[in-house]
Write a structure and sequence with these properties.
heterodimer, A: alpha+beta, Dna Ligase, domain 1, 6-stranded antiparallel beta sheet, 4-stranded parallel beta sheet, 14 strands, 32% helix, globular, B: alpha+beta, 3-stranded antiparallel beta sheet, 46% helix
Chain lengths: 347, 84
């Protein structure tokens, strides 16, 4: 018999820069163990999953973390009082800090999460990646954080062009000269604030791994993927699962060394000499996680089980050569629905 | 040289490298050569088999054959035998 459960999920922005909400929900809905009721938590009133059929059962609008962690957590607790939540899965880097800090408060209220610890979250941060690489013996590109536009002219002392200009949470651009660094510095800092991370550009093929750690050093699941079609925002529009033991060994090594707790996405560049460089470690499930579900590893379901304190046996395999192809779709909805969410904050 | 163990070749000539995620389409002649390489046949044996089956002389065949081989190596579909 399936267990009835209520799961609250963010990341409902199924746009050309998609959040992981919809694929996480699809995975949970396909679970053999749960009969889920899904609460969507939306930051914007036009996030597509709010209006999609069969995705959320109920949606509440929530304030951005930038309005204050306490405001966001208070809103979640208010929702929980009238519509009890068993498990909360935040899907954005920018909101994780608020939920990690409020972990105990949420737990006491009966809301389970399965997130990295603050230390795990901080040490894998883009700005701290060189220290992370050194600590765990991993190859990472050289990088430097800058907080002043005047720092740009000094970059030539430490870097060769081209180089990568990255935001602390999102966005990454390749820059071939100082002028392009300045342009991207302004663009990214206006959106995500400072610091800006300057990273050595490693030429090669980018591959990604979605993984789940149990917090005790065990990898519950891991699936590597190569993007086959990339949008102008650098997002995967199509991808394929790979058979590469080196990628899996590296993932196991990182999860074991850090006792990683929760979902994770590794962004790796494989150089022409077949060396693996970690360019980013995202502390959450990525938007392409449904490929892992399709390949035989229902990582969102496993994450819910871990949050509930259940023992989860590690996945041993997945189907190689499984592909995903994203698509866009015009959904027709009524103004009444939009009005309801906009005025009452729920739908 | 031999084809990497995990390379999948379908009957329709679709070749998939699961380590890199790359896929290729090859024609009937290419598929035959890959099949012979998969069976561990030497370049000399393949030349003999192909020149008996098709109307081509050995020097002309070898020119195309080695060109094809270097392409397979570049795409990481072939690997050299390791000497023990």
């Amino acid at each position: 018999m399936k267990t009835k459960i209520t799961v609250a999920v963010t990341g409902l922005n199924n746009t050309d820069n998609p959040g992981p909400g919809v694929p996480v929900i699809r995975g949970i809905r396909e679970s053999d163990s749960f009969e889920p009721r899904i609460i969507g938590l939306a930051y914007e009133n036009l996030e597509p999953a709010i209006y999609m059929e069969g995705v959320t059962d109920k949606t509440y609008q929530v304030p951005y973390p930038s309005e204050g962690s306490d405001v966001l957590v208070k809103r979640i607790l208010d929702i929980h009082r009238k519509d009890p939540i068993d498990v909360l899965i935040p899907n954005f880097d920018a909101e994780l800090y608020a939920f990690m800090r409020a972990g105990k408060t949420l737990e006491q209220a009966g809301i389970h999460t399965f997130l990295p610890t603050l230390d795990q979250f901080e040490e894998r941060h883009k700005a701290n990646l060189p220290e992370f690489g050194e600590k765990y013996g991993l190859s990472v590109p050289f990088s430097k954080s800058i907080t002043r536009i005047n720092d740009i002219e000094n970059l030539k002392k430490d870097f060769d062009y081209p180089l990568m200009v990255k935001g602390k949470f999102y966005d990454a651009f390749l820059a071939y000269n100082e002028e392009q660094v300045r342009m991207n510095y302004n663009k990214i800092s206006a959106k995500w604030g400072l610091p800006i991370i300057i990273q050595e550009f490693i030429k090669g093929t980018e591959v990604n791994v979605v993984a789940l750690g149990d917090g005790k050093g065990n990898t519950i699941g891991a699936v590597p993927m190569r993007k086959q079609y990339i949008t102008d925002k650098g997002k995967a529009w199509s991808g394929i699962t790979l058979d590469d033991p080196k990628l899996l060994d590296l993932t196991h090594k990182i999860i074991r060394a850090t006792n990683w707790r929760g979902g994770m996405e590794l962004e790796i560049v494989k150089s022409s000499k077949n060396e693996l460089y970690i360019i980013e470690i995202n502390p959450r499930i990525p938007a392409w996680v449904y490929l892992a579900v399709g390949a035989g590893q229902n990582l969102p379901e496993a994450l819910v089980k871990l949050a509930l304190g259940e023992e989860v046996p590690p996945y041993e395999s997945y189907e190689v050569g499984k592909m995903f192809v994203r698509y866009s779709y015009d959904l027709i909805t009524s103004l009444k629905e939009f009005e309801k969410l906009s005025t009452l904050g729920e739908l | 040289m031999h084809i990497r163990k995990n390379i999948a070749i379908s009957e329709t000539g679709f070749v998939f490298n699961p380590t890199t995620g790359d896929s290729y389409s090859i024609n009937q002649v290419g598929r035959e050569i890959l099949t012979y390489l998969g069976e561990g046949r030497s370049p000399a044996e393949i030349t003999s088999l192909m020149t008996s089956a098709y109307d081509i002389d050995p020097p002309s065949f070898e020119k195309y054959f080695y060109d094809f081989i270097s392409m397979l190596k570049q795409f990481e579909l072939l690997e050299e035998e390791h000497e023990d």
